[in-house]
Write a structure and sequence with these properties.
The chain is α+β, with helices and mostly antiparallel strands and 147 residues long. 22% of the residues lie in helices and 50% in strands.
């Protein structure tokens, strides 16, 4: 009798535990750029030509079988000839992006670009060997440089 009671307790407690867990599935989908994303990247490219325009994105999605949520969106590019690595990610609100690229000469460039009060504001970090430079731009014009 004790064995049957113990077996029933284990079976019912496992069933209750399984119902409470939240299963999450992580997906990666390649899709065409939305109109908002394309307009934003095109506006950014007008002021900062080193940030390339793309027509495809990779969406990293989490799905809990009830709700689907986009975690991050990366633009798809062929790696430019003068770069070893090139990556641009856009925010969910389509008003800011983060970028990173590594040039063939070893210079690493990273930063972010945001829309702020109708202007395109850029923060750029450059690192080559022991030299570090931070630059701030508004609409393509250098405002400040810190070495």
């Amino acid at each position: 009798m004790k064995k049957i009671t113990l077996l029933l307790i284990i079976m019912f407690s496992t069933a209750v535990y399984c119902q409470d867990t939240d299963v999450k599935i992580y997906l990666e989908k390649t899709e065409v750029v939305s109109f908002d994303q394309y307009d934003f990247i095109k506006k950014v490219n007008q002021f900062y030509p080193d940030i390339l325009v793309s027509r495809e994105v990779t969406n990293n999605i989490v799905n809990n079988l009830k709700v689907q949520e986009i975690l991050s969106t990366d633009f798809l590019y062929q790696t430019p000839k003068d770069c070893d690595a090139y990556r641009v990610s856009i925010s969910k609100s389509n008003t800011s992006l983060d970028y990173f690229y590594k040039l063939k000469d070893g210079t690493m460039v990273s930063g972010d670009i945001r829309l702020f009060a109708g202007s395109v504001v850029r923060t750029m970090y450059k690192l080559k060997d022991k030299t570090r430079v931070i630059q701030y731009y508004v609409d393509g014009k250098l405002l400040n440089e810190i070495k």
